[in-house]
Amino acid sequence: MAKHLVAAATLLEEDPDLALAHAEHAARRAGRVAAVREALGLVHYRRSEFNDAIREFRTAKRLSGSNHLLPYLVDSERGLGRYERALDLASSDEARNLGEADNIELAIVVSGVRRDLGQPEAAQMVLRIPALERGTNQPWAGRLFYAYAEALLAGGDSEGAREWFAKALDADPSGETDAADRLDLLDGVVLTDLLDGQDDDEGDPVRDDEGHDDDRAEAVDGEVEVASEAGGDVAADAGPHGGGDGSRGPDDPGDDTDADTGPALGERPDEGR
Question: In angstroms, rounded to a whole number, what is the distance separating the alpha carbons of residues 172 and 142?
């Protein structure tokens, strides 16, 4: 089961369908394990399948009793365009006991909601927290600086945005954000792809669309072994802040209470980019 989770994380970028098949296979084998449901939710989240992500995150939350997935739930509601639900959830009791890193991620998501609502000043205010001034190379620093730059740009402050995109770039050596590209755009740099169009004649690889991804997940022992050696963490690769189509996937096996997304977390008594 653990090898399927590692494979899901490793394959998420290159083959999201197979990554989903691995995560679903793990969930069928260990559907009452919170980490398994969280991993499946994160795969759905990265695929912009936000209704499915919400269902899995809620199940993981119930199984673990932890609120650390709250930023992902809020961001999923944002991805579905349910901004009021997202804001209600972000201000719910569950948000009060988050750790620093999760609280920062939640602030980033809320800032994005405010930008989506055309409220750039509010988007800036939610990010003016102590971490903004003391952040350097912490795992969350690049994303926080980038989000603040986005909020400033939304408010028309291009100079301020450039300063914070530059800070985001310095704090993001792994290139998690596209801060470098945003700086180029602000500086008027135009990049031309000299190879554009040269691969058209090669065509796309032919995929087997007959629904065999699940069979591949069960039969790729060698591939899973390679993935296990390579490592991988779905959560580390799936930070909140996405957008999506809200399509649904397989129903939650043996858990009818979570088969529908239902009301958002912020709407009592139930629990939601």
Answer: 5
Q: Is the pLDDT of residue 96 over 70?
A: yes
Contact 147/115 with Cβ under 8 angstroms? no
Distance from CA of residue 50 to its chain's centroid? 10
Question: Once rounded to an integer, what is the mean pLDDT over residues 188-217?
Answer: 57
List the single range of 38-42, 211-215, 230-234 with lowest mean pLDDT. Answer: 230-234
**In a 3-state reduction of DSSP, which class is residue 24?**
helix
Exposed/middle/buried for residue 81 (C-beta within 10 Å: 0-12, 13-18, 19+) = middle
> Could you please report the per-residue DSSP string of 97-160?
G--HHHHHHHHHHHHHHHHHTT-HHHHHHTT-SHHHHH-SSSTTHHHHHHHHHHHHHHTT-HHH
Angle of helix 221-230 relative to helix 2-11, nearest 10 degrees, comes to 70
**Residue type present at position 187:** D
The model's pTM: 0.71
Contacts 24+ apart (CB under 8 A), 39-43: 39/5, 39/8, 39/9, 39/234, 39/235, 40/8, 41/69, 41/72, 42/72, 42/234, 42/235, 42/238, 43/8, 43/12, 43/16, 43/19, 43/234, 43/238
Average pLDDT taken over every residue of the chain: 79
